[in-house]
Recover the amino acids of this structure.
């Protein structure tokens, strides 16, 4: 198992969630410096650490400044989900990342999928099936669900 420069495990590859929507860790975003075979056009950085990439790599980066294990700031969460939606509708390819792609970024992707009509828990289950290392911090997940009016104890309600 290798550690990246921040001390986080970097053992799981970038994960394709949907066509043009990827989930990963900080290192996956940094690796775009040396090439962009997936044509990532937008990066949502869910960490507090700035991501510095040359504009030739990726022109659109949003910085979330979200600490792991802490509640989402509701307006930032809404803004990020809307930003992902606009990027996708505009034909962009989005990478959502936190340090390791385990907690913050999977919850944000589940929130985005929820706004696309998926049940939140089923969306998160789908993400976990694609990326088995996903293990959201309770505060991150519960605050995201509350932001969208979902009971933290809600059960699956749709087939999606």
């Amino acid at each position: 198992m290798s550690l990246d420069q921040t001390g986080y495990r970097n053992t799981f590859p970038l994960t394709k969630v949907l066509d043009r929507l990827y989930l990963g860790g900080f290192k996956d975003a940094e690796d775009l410096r040396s090439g962009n075979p997936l044509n990532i056009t937008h990066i949502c950085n869910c960490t507090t650490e700035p991501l510095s990439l040359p504009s030739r790599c990726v022109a659109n980066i949003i910085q979330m400044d979200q600490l792991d294990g802490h509640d989402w700031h509701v307006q930032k969460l809404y803004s990020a989900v809307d930003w992902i939606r606009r990027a996708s509708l505009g034909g962009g390819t989005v990478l959502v990342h936190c340090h390791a792609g385990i907690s913050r970024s999977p919850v944000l992707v589940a929130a985005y999928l929820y706004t696309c009509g998926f049940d939140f828990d089923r969306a998160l289950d789908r993400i976990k099936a694609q990326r088995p290392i996903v293990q959201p911090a309770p505060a991150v997940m519960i605050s995201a669900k509350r932001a969208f009016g979902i009971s933290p104890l809600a059960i699956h309600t749709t087939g999606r």
Remarks:
- The helical segments are 26-30, 74-89, 104-115, 120-130, 138-147.
- Residues 1-6, 155-160 have pLDDT under 50 and may be disordered.
- Residues 15-147 form a domain with the Protein-Tyrosine Phosphatase; Chain A fold (CATH 3.90.190.10).
